[in-house]
Write a structure and sequence with these properties.
The complex is a heterodimer of chains A (291) and B (204). Chain A is an alpha/beta fold and 291 residues long. Chain A contains 13 helices and eight strands. In chain A, helix 1 crosses helix 12, helix 6 packs across helix 7 and helix 6 packs across helix 8. Chain A is globular, with a radius of gyration of 19 Å. Chain B has 204 residues and is mainly α. Helices cover 52% and strands 0% of the residues of chain B. Classes of the chains: A alpha/beta (291), B mainly alpha (204). Chains A and B meet through helix 2, helix 3 and helix 5 of A and helix 5, helix 6, helix 7, helix 8 and helix 10 of B.
Chain lengths: 291, 204
């Protein structure tokens, strides 16, 4: 199966471990990824400060138009922010012919046009619905037996439409974790916000948010967290020592991307393919039975 | 009530919001149930919850709304959007209000405004965002000394990321920016055109 991988800006730097493990996992599952030639940033959820709504729509319409012209495959976004923003713009354009016309007028500046034929999907959606848990199970060589994982879905990953999973009680991530032999724990803060970009401006608020998530998951026995969003992963992992200090806790819980766990379970190289050496909090102790 | 008494209900600001703020007309659907306030992860940090902001708009409290720190504390988690029983895209109204406030000379949150600008400048100048560059430019937007101080304060994060190959080195070198997309020229034309059109781009 052929897809456009819309890596987005985070996977080019802070989530390089996500990028490496997405590519190795996809390869193992027989997915073929193409890059959208000359793609641009989606603007994330902070673009509203620098631009109006129409500019944000145009920013994403350019990517959609490029994808349509370059083959029209489904766009797969591993980043939840890329997913939610692009998908929302895509839906707005498809549902509002006036907006589509206005945007196409602007796209002419780059000799582009968009008809509305492309789909935008999150990588969890593709893993679960296109590949499926049965196929994933077949690839497992080193099941994560006995490892309790806090499947932290976060907020934007399944929103706003709930196209592939519930916006309040998502299950897809846990089903994938079960397929690789892990034991997902059920915890109350599964879809609570990690604070997103707030760590750059209101640090103290961010510590409280991630502290509550880690508390909720560890109370249910989670030994390792997993996410499918660069900012969720970054905030929970990189700011964990600071949150400990601020809140008087002593968490030292590894935070992985779900594709890193898949790569480990598939028996791929823990560093070359799963990029575990790029995690700030070592996964060695938790994953030693598998990796 | 005598027609000459000071009206308690001034619809002029509400009309301004409907006409000029992105998603502003959506607040007409709000029935003041407060589900947004109960769902917001940062509601306990706010003086005015989204529900209160909507009421203040209807009451004509222009300055109070546009200068409120609370219209700019959104993490964009979409919880208010998915839970609103009247399908008000609360988050989008907040984004629209914040953008409108900034365009009209209000600065509800200075740091967030600076970070947002640094982020958007990366997009406009190169087409993509190098996270390190965006963070560095945000820190330096308060001046070199203040920026350097902030950078040193956060060095544990930056060094950890650099060491684990999760940050591009240009992020720590002042003046350097990320690689440009090929057709940055036409992207800039498109964005300028969009900025000049539609609601949120009209003011100033």
């Amino acid at each position: 199966m052929k897809y456009f991988l819309y890596s987005g800006c985070s996977l080019e730097s802070s989530a390089s471990n996500y990028m490496i493990s997405v590519e190795s996992t996809a390869k193992a599952l027989g997915m073929e990824f193409k890059e959208i030639e000359d793609w641009n940033c989606c603007g994330a959820s902070i673009a509203y400060i620098g631009s109006n709504h129409l500019a944000q729509v145009v920013l994403n319409a350019r990517n959609l138009a490029l994808a349509e012209a370059q083959g029209g495959y489904d766009i797969v976004a591993p980043c939840s922010s890329c997913y939610i923003v692009q998908n929302q713009v895509n839906r707005e354009l498809k549902e509002d012919p006036d907006l589509m016309e206005q945007v196409n007028e602007i796209l002419k500046e780059g000799n582009l046009s968009y008809k509305g034929t492309v789909r935008v999907r999150h990588i969890l959606d593709v893993l679960y619905y296109d590949i499926g848990v049965e196929e994933i199970k077949k690839k497992v060589k080193k099941p994560l037996k006995g490892i309790k994982v806090g499947g932290y879905v976060g907020c934007q990953t399944v929103r706003p439409y709930g196209e592939y999973d519930s916006v309040e009680r998502p299950v897809v991530m846990d089903r994938i974790l079960e397929a690789i032999g892990a034991t997902p724990v059920d915890f109350s803060h599964k879809i609570k916000c990690c604070g997103s970009g707030i760590f750059l401006t209101e640090l103290e608020y961010g510590y409280e948010l991630i502290g509550a998530i880690l508390e909720s998951a560890t109370k249910k026995g989670a030994q390792v967290m997993t996410t499918a969003c660069p900012l969720c992963q970054l905030n929970l992992e990189a700011y964990q020592p600071r949150a400990n200090k601020a809140l008087g806790r002593n968490y030292n819980i590894p935070v992985t991307f779900i594709t890193q766990l898949l790569a480990v379970a598939f028996g791929l190289d823990p560093n070359k393919d799963a990029a575990l050496d790029r995690n700030l909090i070592s996964t060695d102790a938790v994953l030693k039975s598998a990796a | 009530m005598a027609a000459t008494s000071k009206s308690k209900y001034d619809p002029s600001f509400a009309r301004e919001v409907f006409a000029k703020v992105d998603a502003g007309e959506e607040i007409k659907k709000c029935m003041q149930c407060g589900v947004c306030a109960a769902s917001c992860p940062l509601a306990d940090k706010m003086e005015f919850s989204p529900r209160k902001i909507f009421t203040m708009i209807r009451a004509g409290e222009r300055d109070k709304v546009l200068s409120s720190k609370d219209i700019m504390l959104c993490t964009s988690c979409y919880t208010c959007i998915v839970r609103c029983p009247r399908k008000v895209p609360v988050m989008e109204v907040m984004h629209g209000l914040a953008h409108y406030a900034l365009r009209n000379g209000f600065v509800p949150r200075e740091d967030t405004a600076k970070f947002g600008k640094a982020f958007w400048d990366c997009i406009f100048n190169t087409g993509r965002v190098d996270e390190g560059v965006a963070a560095r430019n945000y820190y330096l937007s308060s001046g070199f000394v203040a920026g350097a101080k902030k950078g040193i304060e956060m060095k544990d994060i930056a060094l950890g990321m650099l060491k684990h190959k999760r940050m591009n080195v240009m992020g720590v070198i002042p003046g350097m920016q990320g690689k440009k997309i090929k057709d940055i020229a036409s992207l800039q034309k498109m964005l300028k055109k969009a900025e000049a059109m539609e609601k949120g781009g009209q003011t100033k």
